[in-house]
Automatic annotation (TrEMBL):
It comes from the Bacteria. Coiled coil: none annotated. This is Elongation factor G. Keywords: Cytoplasm, Elongation factor, GTP-binding, Nucleotide-binding, Protein biosynthesis. GO terms for molecular function: GTP binding; GTPase activity; translation elongation factor activity. SUPFAM superfamilies: EF-G C-terminal domain-like, P-loop containing nucleoside triphosphate hydrolases, Ribosomal protein S5 domain 2-like, Translation proteins. SMART domains: EFG_C, EFG_IV. Residues 10-281 form the Tr-type G domain. One of its GO terms (biological process) is ribosome disassembly. One of its GO terms (cellular component) is cytoplasm. The keyword Chaperone does not apply.
């Protein structure tokens, strides 16, 4: 049994499609599904007929909002694909997907090269150690340049892009590619492609680029270097094996090219997925938070990670990646976080919004399950007899909030329930009640993120909702601290009292949110009380003295203290730490911080002056400007509050010809 499954696991590929918005991720996915026979018709984003962008909002807006899982078969391999969003507001959705993937295809626009969100998702893939290959798309567009795109990858993302193809023709004349590994041409006519000899006019250039590829690979791979030094060239077999090794280790990135919309270059991309990206057996064994490992073995105890939760008309779907073991219909599994058991009533093979029921799933599978009621993204489901907690994907702090309320008072409870369900499905959304105004505040990663969430409430739950103007999430930071602050906490009200004396040095912290240390000697404050003081200080950071905003950038040092033989306790020292730091923050000098965004604006060169002036009026700080074939690309750091509504203003100033993207860039002092 085990040998059979091990053999089949080598033919599984779990990968995501990553890119900046409009680079062509969804079109690439649709062409892969069509060529692999998973769909009978090519889906088009502009027609709203794609498989993965099935949500009504995705089709209305023409962008991917929710990560969608699909499967197809190619060359005897099972490919599980996740098409991820490209807009920065949904980067948390990308991160949750990357956490469970073994590999990825990074798609780049052949004209723009590396764009802001391309860089963001690439760094996320770096964080999770996800091997990837690059696909330079849209080579049929005017101004497309493979070499320029590759140079932007080398300069901004990775030092070793390994280009394995040479385009045949440029822009409208783009007809195919030269495969530099096998030294053959691949040309597309009428949707089908033909392999043949390298065209004579490209022979010399193809040989030159093949030599550059061999040199680049030989620098990074010992076996390829040995063959490179021993003979005139590296064989196709050795080169392919080296490219696979370099992709798996992350030492190199294979680069392919094409035009997905025109059906050119997708078959070689599928071949590269099979040839270079890892199977579940090629990646390290999954490790629990306690350090225990589980191999990708169907016979091992079950360990699966939930990465997406979706409420549908037919029930609650929990999307899971099975890392080890076998999950069967009717099994009882343990929610490792809460300690409660759940029953798996159904297991579904997912094809975007369509599902096929299966009896079981094994290590390496990505499936949806019905049954778990409390599982959230990041929940570990495991065998009850072998508990294991897997590291969940990180969740970013929301930066924008809007006040929401039901237009009809009778719908208030329904709205609260709908918002709570959405926050459960998407951890980057939070819902809270403002203590001063009593308003319900919905917080998220950006203006579009909140627009989509509110529209989902309206469409899915039939609720009329009123929405306030977006508000940014401010922070407070320490500019000048205090030293030797003595705080005495003494309370006696009959029975055991409370007694804690602490002396704190409080100073600004250049990097990070909070740092705590203790220099107390001689046992004047026992270790457990030191931990209690730190916990109390963390409590104090929740609300600063300027306006009750969270506090960041503080270093606290406990320098002295005193205890009482009977009345001292962890609770007393936690209270003392909380009140002492609150007093220190009031005594020091505080500053307000506001979130800022890195804005990249692309406009015709005749509109650049007006756009620069408008950015300056929005308190923007220009960080760069580059001219590219009649357009100007301007980058600036702009307060997030000033970015709201900018799309409309930009369209009016450029007569609809300007575009922009924004991504969070941390916090800066507010005026």
């Amino acid at each position: 049994m085990r040998a059979h499954f091990s053999t089949s696991l080598t033919t599984v590929r779990n990968l995501g499609i990553l890119a900046h918005v409009d680079a062509g991720k969804t079109t690439v996915t649709e062409r892969m599904l069509f060529l692999a026979g998973a769909t009978y018709k090519r889906g088009e984003v502009h027609d709203g007929t794609t498989v993965t962008d099935f949500d009504s909002q995705e089709r209305d807006r023409g962008i991917t909002i929710f990560a969608a899982a699909v499967s197809c078969d190619w060359d005897g391999h099972r490919i599980n694909l996740i098409d991820t969003p490209g807009h920065v507001d949904f980067s948390d959705e990308v991160e949750r997907s990357l956490r469970v993937l073994d590999g990825a295809i990074a798609v780049f626009d052949g004209v723009a090269g590396v764009e802001p969100q391309s860089e963001s998702v690439w760094r996320l893939a770096d964080r999770y150690g996800v091997p990837r290959i690059a696909f330079v798309n849209k080579l049929d567009r005017a101004g497309a340049d493979l070499d320029a795109a590759v140079e932007s990858i080398r300069r901004r993302l990775h030092p070793a892009p390994l280009v394995t193809q040479l385009p045949i023709g440029r822009e409208d004349g783009f007809a195919g590619v030269v495969d530099l590994v096998r030294m053959r041409s691949l040309t597309w006519t009428g949707g089908a492609y033909e392999a043949g000899e390298v065209p004579g006019e490209l022979r010399e250039e193809a040989l030159r680029r093949r030599r550059l590829l061999e040199e680049a690979v030989a620098e990074l791979h010992a076996e390829a270097l040995e063959e490179f030094c021993a003979g005139p060239s590296i064989s196709a077999r050795t080169l392919a094996a080296a490219l696979r090794d370099l992709t798996r280790t992350g030492a190199g990135v294979v680069v392919l090219c094409g035009s997905a919309y025109r059906d050119r270059g997708v078959e070689p991309l599928l071949d590269a997925v099979v040839a270079y990206l890892p199977s579940p057996l090629d990646v390290p064994a999954v490790r629990g938070q306690d350090g225990a490992e589980r191999p990708a073995d169907p016979a091992a105890p079950l360990a699966a990670l939930a990465f997406k939760v979706n409420s549908t008309a037919t029930g609650r779907l929990t999307y899971v990646r099975v890392y080890s073991g076998t999950m069967r219909k009717g099994d009882t599994v343990l929610d490792a976080g809460t300690g409660r058991t759940e029953r798996i009533s159904r297991i579904l093979r997912v094809q975007a919004d369509r599902h096929a029921e299966v009896d079981r799933s094994v290590a390496g599978d990505i499936v949806a399950v019905v049954g778990p009621k409390a599982a959230r993204p990041g929940t570990t489901l495991c065998a009850p007899g072998s508990p294991l907690v897997l590291e969940p994907p990180g969740a970013a702090d929301p930066v924008v909030s809007v006040a929401v309320e039901a237009r009809r008072s009778t719908d208030a409870d329904r709205l609260a329930s709908a918002l709570a369900r959405m926050a459960e499905e998407d951890p980057s959304l939070t819902v809270r009640t403002d203590a001063e105004t009593g308003q319900t505040l919905l917080s998220g990663m950006g203006e579009l993120h909140l627009e989509v969430a509110v529209e989902k409430v309206r469409r899915d739950h039939g609720l009329a909702v009123a929405v306030g103007r977006p508000q940014v999430a401010l922070r407070e930071t320490l500019v000048r601290g205090v030293s030797g602050l003595l705080y005495r906490h003494v309370k006696q009200e009959g029975g055991a009292g409370q007694y804690a004396h602490v002396t704190l040095d409080v100073e600004p912290l250049a990097e990070g949110d909070f740092a705590f240390s203790s220099t107390v000697t001689g046992g004047r404050v026992p270790r457990e009380y030191v931990r209690a003081v730190e916990a109390g200080c963390r409590d104090a950071l929740a609300a600063g003295p300027l306006g009750g905003h969270p506090v960041t950038g503080v270093r606290v040092t406990l320098t002295d203290g005193a205890t009482h033989v009977k009345d001292s306790s962890e609770f007393a020292f936690r209270t003392a730490g909380h009140l002492a730091l609150s007093e220190a923050l009031r005594a020091g000098t505080m500053a307000l911080l506001e979130p800022v965004a890195e804005v990249t604006v692309t406009v015709p060169d005749d509109a650049a002056g007006a756009v620069l002036g408008d950015l300056a009026a929005r308190r923007g700080r220009i960080t760069g400007s580059a001219t590219r074939s009649g357009t100007v690309v301007i980058t600036a750091i702009v307060p997030l509050a000033e970015v709201f509504g900018y799309a409309t203003r930009l369209r009016s100033r450029t007569r609809g010809r300007g575009t922009f993207t924004a991504r969070p860039a941390g916090y800066a002092p507010a005026p």
